[in-house]
Each structure stands twice: as C-alpha cells, then as structure tokens.
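TICKET: design request
STATUS: open
ATTACHED STRUCTURE:
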C-alpha cells in the first residue's frame, strides 16, 4: 500500500470567494476541473495527532487545517494589505505564534509560525 498524498476539504457558503483567495492571494498552484472548480496543490505538510480533550476539542473542533509561515508578523501584514481579515492579535502559544484568518463563508483557518522543530 502506498499513500501518495493528502486531500483536504474546506466547506463554505462562498466557495468561489475562498477559491479566489487561495489562487490570487496565497498564489497556490491549481488545476481547473471546469465550471470554476479548482483543486489546489498544497505546500509541504505535516500532521499532528492531538488528544480528544482540552478547550479546542471541547469547543467543537474535531479536525483543523492550519497554514504555516516563517515570519507571521510579516505574513499578516501582507495578507491584510491584500484584504484578508485577520482576527485579533498574534498569540504566543508556546509551541508557536498564532492568529486566525477569517475567509468568506464562515471559514476560519489558523495561521502559525512554529516555535518547534518541524517535520518538513
């Protein structure tokens, strides 16, 4: 058996607007399957396995997509200049510095700068 990749899904009431952000703002490579249906290549990824306890789990989060960056302050400044809503201030969680990107249709995506060794 060979696992060859990961296909992640975001659900939103505004798929075209979110696709536009991934294409035009983040600059992710993509293929167009027709009728505006875009599938995006993702940057290198890693997977963390967390216990089913604590405030995030208790608030209803069961799976999470997180975008990583090397310099979160600069990345947030650039994203805000491109019209991306960033919720709140940067938070030092110990394992990384985080914030939340608010995308159309109720999609919240964590952005974080790791403060630990990464697998990629």
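STATUS: resolved
RESOLUTION: sequence designed for all positions
ATTACHED SEQUENCE:
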């Amino acid at each position: 058996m060979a696992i060859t990749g990961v296909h992640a899904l975001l659900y939103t009431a505004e798929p075209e607007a979110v696709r536009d952000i991934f294409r035009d703002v983040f600059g992710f490579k993509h293929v167009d399957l027709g009728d505006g249906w875009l599938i995006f290549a993702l940057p290198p990824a890693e997977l963390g396995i967390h216990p089913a306890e604590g405030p995030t789990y208790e608030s209803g989060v069961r799976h999470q997509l997180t975008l990583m960056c090397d310099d979160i302050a600069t990345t947030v400044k650039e994203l805000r200049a491109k019209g991306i809503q960033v919720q709140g201030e940067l938070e030092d969680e110990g394992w990384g510095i985080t914030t939340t990107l608010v995308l159309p249709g109720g999609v919240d995506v964590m952005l974080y700068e790791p403060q630990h060794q990464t697998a990629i």
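CLOSING REMARK: The longest strand covers residues 85-92. The first helix runs from residue 15 to 25.
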